[in-house]
């Protein structure tokens, strides 16, 4: 939320702390992309929802009623355009985002909500 309110950047890059990042190739790629409705990363498209209570990322059917998570960019490295970041922050402030266990799948659930939410939805999302 802080970044959404205080940054004039076009994109937000998030990476795990154990990643060696070479910024130049990423910046070169981003220069080619319009800074709107954009998400980039290593996407997981068919990740099953952990249902065993002993699992660290356990989600009950009440938490998340589907068997497979919405597609999500894995945490190694991901980029969101700032318009998407701001929409996520706004939806979070308004209490419209479903919270689940697992930060990576959670961002996919939130992006799906932005795509299909009846309040200020994104018409599309480039991945």
UniProtKB/TrEMBL annotation:
The highest taxon in the source lineage is Eukaryota
* Name of the protein in question: Hexosyltransferase
Organism of this sequence: Noctiluca scintillans
EC id: 2.4.1.-
Q: How does it sit in the membrane?
A: Single-pass type II membrane protein
TM ranges are: none
List the Pfam families hit by this protein, alphabetically: Galactosyl_T (PF01762)
Q: A single GO molecular function, which one?
A: hexosyltransferase activity
The protein's UniProt keywords, in alphabetical order, are: Glycosyltransferase, Golgi apparatus, Membrane, Signal-anchor, Transferase, Transmembrane, Transmembrane helix
Per UniProt, subcellular location reads as: Golgi apparatus membrane
